[in-house]
Prior knowledge:
Blueprint: E1 15-17, H1 18-25, H2 29-38, E2 45-47, E3 56-60, H3 61-69
Antiparallel strand pairs: 1-3, 2-3
Amino acid sequence: MPTPKVAERHTPTHLLSKREVLKLTGVSYPTIWKWMQQGNFPRSRLLGEPGSKTARVCWYAHEVEAWLAGLPLQKIKGDAPATQN
Length: 85
């Protein structure tokens, strides 16, 4: 008898609006757009029918949070010098 599949743990997906992403990053939408084109920022998703007046762009919060967490730390006075290999 086959064993039943264990239900995968599913966490709710939180979506961020354009306004929220701009507030989190502190940059303009043209900058976000350029970064997306360059592959340096998570791609937005289209919520709604393409071309409709009610369609909105949004981002998965976990993707934006991962991008923010991956940003380099600001160097401050007293940091050890970078080692060269």
